[in-house]
Sequence to fold (299 residues):
Amino acid sequence: MSVLGVHLSPEHGFSKTSQPSITLLKDLGVEGDCHLGKTTQHLWRLKDHALEPNLRQVHLIQSELFNEPDFHGEDSVRIQPGQMGENVTTTGIDLLTLGNGTKLRFVDNKHTQATFDNRHLRVLHEFSSLFFKYLVVSLLLEAVFLTMGSGTSWHRVALVISGSLQESLFVYMVGSWPIILFGALLVSLGIDSNLHSMVLGTVACINLVLLSYFWYTKKDYLGEHAIITVTGLRHPCKKVEKFRPGLQEKCVVRGGEKNSILKRKAGIMAVVTRAGTIRPGMTIIVEPAERFKELPVLR
Fold:
């Protein structure tokens, strides 16, 4: 799954010009493109929908569409990337089956879908700074509680809660077996508050070391890449027909008694969630939404 080509046009025409790279601006779209903006930019929608959020900031089409016989003209001339007005031409990914809210990350080749699908590591890298700050604060609070003494019950409750969260984080990062070993050690030596506090302190220190590593390698693991969020299917408008007579009908699949539209094949629309640069050859990593929802049609 990768980027075959990137394109933009500063004017409201139909086709877009291929570029070595394009720059995405958060909540706006493609820098220098005519559809850049937070609100509606498509000319035919400006009259009645000028203040609506711009859900069509980035247009994507899968290149496999151009290989279909229906998309070859009478002279067998194949449609080229950018001619359908898309900003990004993809290969190896079925854009039309993605769910609403799916995130697409554009990364260098050293990142792969399999690597990013490891949610365990991704969570640790993405939230390493938050976990780190929590640990520092909890250690400071524990030090205060221990200094004041553990005679009051709420001190003990606070220490137990803090210790449980630290142990849970430790299990998430390392696995359950070290905690089991710690537990066996405590049982064998006899459980007392001082020893338990020492064990929790050790766990917290190990957590800090591990989180420091995840924090340090966060940029290399995740990268500072562009992210877009899919918002809907592109409805093939009349401009498609003007570009090549008969093409508008070939961009849909009809069926049923009323010969209604069952599928639209003119690509998908998205908004920019994180700014960045997209170049041909970059890998596309798909991050589905928690719950699958079919893509709405954006007319």
